[in-house]
Every structure is written in structure tokens, then in C-alpha cells.
Amino acid sequence: AQTVTQSQPEMSVQEAETVTLSCTYDTSESDYYLFWYKQPPSRQMILVIRQEAYKQQNATENRFSVNFQKAAKSFSLKISDSQLGDAAMYFCAYQGAQKLVFGQGTRLTINP
Amino acid sequence: DTGVSQDPRHKITKRGQNVTFRCDPISEHNRLYWYRQTLGQGPEFLTYFQNEAQLEKSRLLSDRFSAERPKGSFSTLEIQRTEQGDSAMYLCASSYTRQQDTQYFGPGTRLTVL
Questions:
Q1: pLDDT at position B50, please?
Q2: Is residue B24 a contact partner of residue B74, using CB atoms and an 8 Å limit?
Q3: What pLDDT score does B17 carry?
């Protein structure tokens, strides 16, 4: 069975600074997708970024980028120029066939 | 596009009662998923449908839980004889197989069993 591990329960960063959230996963599959979702205090889960495992190029969405290391099974999220609205729980998720397997989450606090 | 909607947003019930939740997916999405999220944890998969067919169920889905998607559009999740351990956020997500199958989530239904 696939597993996803987020080793940082909480992180904090100063506004406008850069922060990196870590994620590792375990799978025997070769074709899969990885995601970062954001869950603000209102609890609506929002897609942040997506990475296809067959792509070597790291995904980027505006201030959000990933560092995908397939051999190491590592998938970290970098948030540049952190903003107050980035404060949320961040979940790393793995998708093989259909269902998502989530990590435990990292609570990100932005300090003004 | 309107997003995924769920109803009700909050439900408080007494132990032993039955509850039913509804999820309306994004209109063209053919896959619909149910997840359960307890406080401080990541969501856990319960079941998913492709059109009206229920294709996978987690062992978390005990025989007190049943889900349907009768016409391949909205879905219902029913919990019979609720227990305090059923208290959680129930999340619905939908996806479209021809759009990279990315799942988009609804706001969830928070269930509290007293």
C-alpha cells in the first residue's frame, strides 16, 4: 500500500520570505501523480499544484513550486514571497489508480 | 463552472440515529469520491464512483455506511446507527477522466454524534 509522510507538523515563516514543506512517499508503482492541497481554516480543500511522475520538470504555479525527486521519493513544496493568505494546513497527496492517499499535513503560519 | 457542493454543511445527531449526506459534483465530472477527515488528520478514502458504478470501497466503510450515485450525477452517503466514532468531516470530491483526473473538493459536511 502507498504511504505519504509529512514530517513537519508545523512550520512558520515571516511574510515575504520563502518556506519549504517536506513530503516523502512510498510506492512500487512507476506511473502516478503527486499533489499539494491547501486547507485554510474554512476547511475547503484547494488544489495548489500537481506533478506527473513521468515528467522530470518540476511543476510551478506562480509563487508555488515543487522539488520532485523520483528516485528518493521526495516531493517538497516551496512557497516564495509568503503572504498572510498562505496560512493553512498543507497536505501532500499521492494518486496511483484513482484514490488519493494523503499525508498527515503541515500547519503553516505566516508571521506579519 | 460551479464547484462541488455538499449538503448539509453541519449535522448534529444523537448516537443510534441515521444520517444522510448529499454531494453534487462539478457538472461534467464522471468520477465522485468520498473521504473522511478527523481533526488534525489528512483525509482518508472511503469509496468512489465512476458514473453510477461504485468501483472501490475502503475497509473503513463498515456495513453501517452505504453510498449511492443513482444517475451518475449527485451522490448520497448514509450512515446508519451512528456512533460517536463517526464524528468527522465528510469530504466529497469529483474529477473528469479526460481532464487528467484531478480531484476537486467540496466544502465538506461536519458530523457530530452526541
A1: 93
A2: yes
A3: 98
Mutation for testing the A interface, residue in B1, B45, B103, B111 having most A CBs under 10 Å: B103
Of the candidates B56, B100, B105, the beta carbon closest to that of A44 is on B105
In the block, cell 453510498 appears at: B67
pLDDT digits (tens, 9 = 90+) for A30-42: 889 999 999 998 7
The closest CB to that of A99, out of B45, B102, B107, belongs to B45
Q: Could you tell me which chain A residue has the CA closest to the CA of B50? A: A98
Please give the Cα distance from A63 to B101 (Å, whole number): 24
| pLDDT grade for B72, boundaries at 50, 70 and 90 | confident
Largest CA distance in chain A: 42
* pLDDT over 70 (residue A2): yes
**3-state secondary structure at position A2:** coil
